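subagent[fold] <- orchestrator: predict structure for attached chain, return tokens only, no commentary.
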Amino acid sequence: MPLLTLIFLCLAIYKQIEAKNSRENFPYSQACRGDFLSEVQYDDRRFKMNTTLYFSFLNKNKILVSMSGNVYAYDEKGKLVDKRIVLRNIYYSYVLENKILQTYTLKSDRVNIDSVDTMNEELSRLVLMNSSYIVGDSDTLVLKKYDANSMLIETTQSPLIMCVFVK
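subagent[fold] -> orchestrator:
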């Protein structure tokens, strides 16, 4: 019986060390939610994307991002010509690229597109990050804790969303 107890104790210590190392590499254990609003202009077309992003930080360098919202297309006169629905879950694996700058490379392992999602590939190329519709593609993000309740998520060029931790 003492050998079995020793094995369980060693296993518990190993799991604690593994969990601590995982938190050191990526210290966020709570989910967070943020709204993303973007407007882009391509030639004579303008697109507006209004989505909510829900980040769930899973174990073993995994992140689930749930995206829901709408994309609007306008003609050169500003008239609404198309409205599309975005509703998908993207499962990422990530690698810490720079601990000081808090830069991560996220690679999409799986993209689950809901049946009500009406985005086509052309529109996806214009308004979404590649990894949110192409499985196996990577994007680089900066994930910085802003305060006790929020995190700023940025590309290397500009901020994307302020993500508020869900309690």
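orchestrator: received. Logging for downstream: The beta strands are 32-42, 45-57, 62-74, 80-98, 103-113, 138-147, 150-154, 159-165. The longest strand covers residues 80-98.
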